[in-house]
Amino acid sequence: MKRSSMKKCLRPLLLAAASLTVAVAASACGPANEGAASAKPAVTGAEPSTGSPLSPQASTSSPAPASSSPTPARTTSAPTPKQAVVENTAAPRTRAAWPRVTFARLTFEIPPGWTLTKYGSDACVQPAYRAGLATTFGCAGIAIKSGSIAGNELRLYEARQPGGWYAATDVQPCPVRPTLADGSFNGITSGTSSPPIESGLRPVGSRKAAYDRWTAACASGYRFSPQAWHLPVSRVLFLDYTGHAETARVLESVRFPG
User: Fewer CB within 10 Å, N side or C side of the chain?
Assistant: First the structure.
């Protein structure tokens, strides 16, 4: 075969081989680039709940498995431990008993260290040691009257009576410091005939008493608020002239006959 004819025969073959080589090369380059891109691992939890950036190790972690729904970010806070419930096993406190006394057919408690002193139809519940205590009409605690009860300036006592606590016709000494610094008499100067500043019904034992409270003052400026609890059926009057913390329990403890 002549050389010119051979070249004519080889040209199509060379062109075909070149086309095949280009196709193979193109085919090899395309998939390699996609594989490199897909081989880059997907980073999950890119921003932890603390808001700090990922550490270098996190970017090289193995890819997470594919999922149809996004994976919720995990929190890094430790679980809160359950607080232990402490039961109060202490027994409830019981109120210590007070001595009980009887007057005008009523029984009631008096504080330890107090005594009941009777003066005919009247009585006084007061501390046994009363030096320096506020004292009104000779009583340093709770005065109790029964029967035909004297009220303002010895009138018959009635609920809401002006000056009902003041059963005297003369000037009585102040409950505290009956003598002034200059040696003069410190007497009760106001409130002896004034109407009550508070009235109503208050419990005494299992019953309701007519309650009244007045205000009074002495020449020295000392002020106090006498209080009265009147039981008209039992014909008994409790009087607290200057206010004692023990009075509430004494009145609560009253028991009636029958």
Answer: C
